[in-house]
């Protein structure tokens, strides 16, 4: 018998012409002790759905029935864990959980209250931190408190609204594993809202997509028949996992937001930025060829002039050519790059002797666990952080400060909120193309904004754009600078899966045209393989360095669908996962 039933649920906000229809025709039955994952994307109404089930809001139409009775308001039978932590900052771990237990069980004796509190503190691995306040806890630890608090009130249904999405990959993986252990012990009925297909497959009995809004509804149900417990490493070799993952991903892409229209009808002028120079080697080769040719002609006309032909000049030309080839192969060179920060306990070396060569036009994915120094390497490359020792060379010139020859896209796009998308891109374009006409600069801006799907939103202020749209502006701005090096620091980390997939396609499409040398910091294994010619894996910090370099020999242009179908893809994935597992921090106190 179903413990939860949703009958023809519809929910909208506002009135009249301002009405926003969020959910429609939602029908669902969930059995007791079942673990169901609902895969939702930005704007699809997933938090609205959780709030309806929890009784925090009412539906405009239909019924939410829990344990045979219509839901009328919130109840301790339905515990909720949201993405944000919502802890009382002045209370300790124990104090936050005790507050919830006392509210639900006001007549419970103090001894039993504390026994219940300590039981769940221990269950989520926080006994060592029971007296710490939220400000003294990491993000993963704060979310553990949330889970313990929800479990301590003994709900029959646990509602998890993207509880791990704001956490780094390692912390998220550890909490996913712990959640399955807790679920198997407690045997609660669980509804997990997530945008992570792998998370859903690892944890759930059933996976149900919530179609993109407005008027979102539930899509096809996918049954997960993979035996428990499910190990994230070994599951990668499971035929059932591979087929189910591919099927769900393709389904989501088919029902999701279609890729934005391309740049048809736009024109990119044939101009170069002021940062693009001929380069000493190219100039030297040209001059050497000219001198040799002139002297050779003179010698052929006057045998007495043969003495002016330098017999070593052909060797000079050959040496310059060889040097050019070497410089292309070492377009970006990291030599013993080290970063040390002073601390009250003494110097802390975050990155130690990082060595890497990147050829011109290559796309390198830099991956590793949280805290391994990936972003530090990137900010040193951008010239935003000083190098403590060693050096970084870009196109024959050592990096000593920031400059427009390096385009940077951060996880949170740094746009001026009062400026339009067009004006935000124009700021950079006007700096690197001051020698071009106003029309040419306009064409550059419009071309790249159109390429990233913002043709109809160029004149909207950044404050009016969604996170995904703002990140598109950041990508357009970076490419519009025609940088020598594109640096991407987890550019899609704050976005839902569907938006992330869409922007990865946009990034690959624009990169395919420009072939700009690129370094992308990511914690997403699939993203690293999808984007990179090489995946550079970093060891854990402190003293992090290059641990392994994997060449990705997959054809371009690439798409997510084609990647999932390629026979070598899961071998590459396994190689990266094995490396990350080798360096994984197992102690709960480190998450």
Radius of gyration from the alpha-carbon trace, in angstroms: 28 Å
The beta-strand count equals 20
Segments where pLDDT lies below 50 for 5+ residues?
258-264, 277-292, 301-310, 585-591
**Fraction in beta strands:** 15-25%
Q: What characterizes the major β-sheet?
A: 6 strands, mixed
What is the residue-averaged pLDDT?
Answer: 82
Share in helix = 25-40%
Number of helices: 17
Fold blueprint:
Elements: E1 2-13, E2 20-31, E3 35-39, H1 46-54, E4 61-66, E5 69-70, E6 78-81, H2 93-104, H3 110-123, H4 139-152, E7 157-161, H5 169-186, E8 189-194, H6 197-203, E9 206-209, E10 222-223, H7 239-255, H8 280-301, H9 313-329, E11 332-341, E12 348-358, E13 363-367, H10 374-382, E14 389-394, E15 397-398, E16 406-409, H11 421-432, H12 438-451, H13 467-480, E17 485-489, H14 497-514, E18 517-522, H15 525-531, E19 534-538, E20 546-551, H16 560-565, H17 569-582
Parallel strand pairs: 3-8, 3-9, 6-7, 7-8, 13-18, 13-19, 16-17, 17-18
Antiparallel strand pairs: 1-2, 1-4, 4-5, 9-10, 11-12, 11-14, 14-15, 19-20
């Amino acid at each position: 018998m179903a413990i939860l039933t949703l009958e023809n649920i519809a929910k909208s906000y506002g009135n009249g012409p301002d009405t926003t229809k969020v959910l429609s025709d939602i029908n669902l039955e969930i059995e007791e002790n079942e673990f169901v994952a609902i895969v939702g994307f930005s704007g699809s109404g997933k938090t609205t759905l959780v709030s309806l089930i929890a009784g925090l809001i009412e539906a405009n139409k239909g019924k939410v029935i829990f344990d045979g009775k219509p839901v009328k308001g919130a109840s301790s039978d339905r515990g909720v864990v949201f993405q944000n932590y919502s802890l009382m900052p002045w209370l300790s771990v124990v104090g936050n959980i005790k507050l919830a237990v006392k509210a639900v069980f006001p007549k419970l004796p103090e001894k039993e209250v504390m026994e219940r509190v300590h039981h769940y503190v221990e269950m989520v691995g926080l006994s060592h931190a029971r007296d710490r306040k939220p400000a003294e806890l990491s993000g993963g630890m704060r979310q553990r408190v949330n889970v313990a608090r929800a479990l301590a009130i003994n709900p029959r249904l646990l509602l998890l609204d993207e509880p791990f999405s704001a956490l780094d990959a390692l912390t998220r993986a550890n909490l996913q594993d712990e959640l399955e252990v807790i679920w198997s012990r407690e045997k609660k009925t669980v509804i997990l809202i997530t945008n992570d297909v792998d998370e859903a497959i690892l944890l759930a009995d059933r996976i149900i997509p919530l179609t993109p809004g407005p008027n979102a509804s539930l899509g096809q149900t996918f049954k997960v028949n993979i035996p428990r417990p499910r190990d994230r490493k070994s599951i990668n070799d499971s035929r059932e996992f591979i087929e189910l993952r591919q099927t769900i991903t393709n389904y989501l892409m088919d029902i999701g937001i279609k890729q934005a229209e391309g740049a048809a009808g736009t024109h990119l002028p044939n101009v170069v930025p002021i940062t693009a120079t001929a380069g000493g080697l190219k100039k030297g080769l040209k001059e050497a060829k000219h001198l040799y040719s002139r002297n050779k002609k003179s010698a052929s006309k006057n045998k007495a002039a043969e003495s002016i032909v330098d017999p070593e000049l052909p060797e000079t030309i050959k040496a310059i050519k060889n040097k050019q080839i070497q410089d292309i192969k070492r377009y970006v060179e990291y030599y013993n790059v080290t970063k040390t920060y002073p601390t009250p306990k003494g110097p802390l070396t975050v990155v130690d002797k990082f060595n890497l060569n990147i050829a011109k036009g290559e796309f390198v994915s830099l991956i590793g666990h949280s805290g391994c120094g990936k972003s530090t390497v990137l900010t040193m490359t951008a010239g935003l952080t000083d190098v403590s020792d060693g050096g970084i060379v870009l196109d024959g010139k050592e990096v000593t400060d920031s400059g427009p020859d390096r385009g940077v896209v951060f996880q949170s796009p740094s746009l001026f909120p009062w400026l339009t998308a067009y004006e935000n891109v124009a700021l950079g374009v006007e700096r690197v193309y001051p020698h071009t006409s106003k029309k040419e600069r306009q064409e550059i801006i419009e071309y790249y904004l159109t390429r990233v799907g913002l043709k109809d939103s160029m004149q909207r202020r950044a404050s009016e754009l969604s996170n995904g749209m703002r990140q598109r502006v950041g990508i357009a701005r970076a490419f519009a600078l025609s940088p020598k090096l594109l640096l991407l620091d987890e550019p899609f980390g704050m976005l839902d899966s569907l938006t992330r997939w869409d922007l990865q396609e946009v990034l690959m499409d624009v990169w395919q045209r420009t072939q700009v040398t690129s370094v992308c910091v990511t914690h997403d294994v699939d993203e690293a393989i999808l984007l990179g010619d090489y995946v550079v894996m970093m060891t854990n910090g402190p003293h992090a360095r290059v641990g392994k370099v994997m060449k990705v020999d997959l054809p371009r242009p690439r798409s997510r669908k084609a990647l999932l179908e390629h026979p070598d893809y899961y071998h590459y994935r396994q190689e990266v996962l094995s490396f990350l597992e080798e360096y994984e921090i197992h102690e709960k106190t480190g998450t």
